[in-house]
Backbone:
């Protein structure tokens, strides 16, 4: 009986250890550009974003950059966009299958905090529209 | 003698079993026949002994719980209840054993459906000084737009 209890306790500890020990959340961050001008098209690499982008007025979508980052709680990762600005991405909280991420646009004094489930994607406009085009940042926490 | 043969079966008759004419004829015969009177007396004595013996045996038996036993059997089940409900009532353990896997499967199904269904934003918090933003909620995640007029 005692052995069984200890074995079960050990199994639970081993099972939960990786979750407790890992403090970083891997995320995929992309910079994409939406344009009102030009023929309607969607970059094939953005096919998974098509549904999320369809309500927007931009008809042409291109991927600019794509990279994986590991976010640590409270630590801000900066992502550079083509117009020279840097966007801050911070992991605020991670709880089970949900993560809270803050996107900060310094030039606009804007911070947006969103809680989503892992696998969901945050699409955040990071620049104003210029010449019919604007840049967006997408963040997806990898499950 | 001939009358004795005729009246002999009547000697064992109980009160009320003979018609009035037969009873009157039997009384008239017994008044004149000592032999039949003696036979009737023997029969009455025998009857008494048998009755006493039967009564003694009946008294020896305890009928006190009889009513309770009958009422208990009456209350054990409603006669006529048949079907699945009756089976479940009588075999609760077996019914429970059958129900547990179904309940467990339903619980798993609900959990899977809850996890696999359309996902919603758990919480949205927007903090923008001087800028107004618009948020579109989609099943794949939120889309945050900047106010173009700022």
Residues:
């Amino acid at each position: 009986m005692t052995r069984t209890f200890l074995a079960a306790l050990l199994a639970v500890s081993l099972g939960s250890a990786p979750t407790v020990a890992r403090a970083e959340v891997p995320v995929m961050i992309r910079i994409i550009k939406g344009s009102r001008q030009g023929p309607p098209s969607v970059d094939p690499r953005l096919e998974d974003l098509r549904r999320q982008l369809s309500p927007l007025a931009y008809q042409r979508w291109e991927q600019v950059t794509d990279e994986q980052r590991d976010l640590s709680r409270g630590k801000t990762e900066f992502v550079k966009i083509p117009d020279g600005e840097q966007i801050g991405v911070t992991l605020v909280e991670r709880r089970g299958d949900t993560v809270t991420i803050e996107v900060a646009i310094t030039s606009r004094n804007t911070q947006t905090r969103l809680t989503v489930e892992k696998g969901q994607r945050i699409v955040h406009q990071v620049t104003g529209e210029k010449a019919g085009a604007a840049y967006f940042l997408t963040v997806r926490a990898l499950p | 003698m001939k009358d004795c043969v005729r009246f002999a079966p009547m000697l064992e008759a109980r009160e009320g079993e003979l018609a009035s004419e037969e009873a009157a004829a039997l009384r008239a015969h017994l008044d004149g026949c000592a032999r039949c009177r003696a036979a009737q007396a023997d029969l009455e004595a025998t009857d008494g002994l048998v009755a006493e013996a039967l009564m003694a045996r009946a008294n020896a038996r305890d009928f006190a719980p009889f009513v309770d036993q009958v009422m208990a059997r009456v209350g054990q089940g409603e006669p006529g209840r048949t079907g699945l409900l009756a089976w479940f009532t009588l075999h609760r353990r077996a019914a429970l054993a059958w129900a547990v896997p179904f309940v467990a499967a339903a619980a798993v199904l609900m959990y899977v459906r809850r996890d696999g269904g359309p996902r919603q934003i758990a919480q949205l918090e927007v903090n923008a000084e001087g800028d107004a933003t618009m948020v579109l909620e989609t099943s794949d995640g939120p889309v945050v737009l900047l106010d173009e007029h700022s």
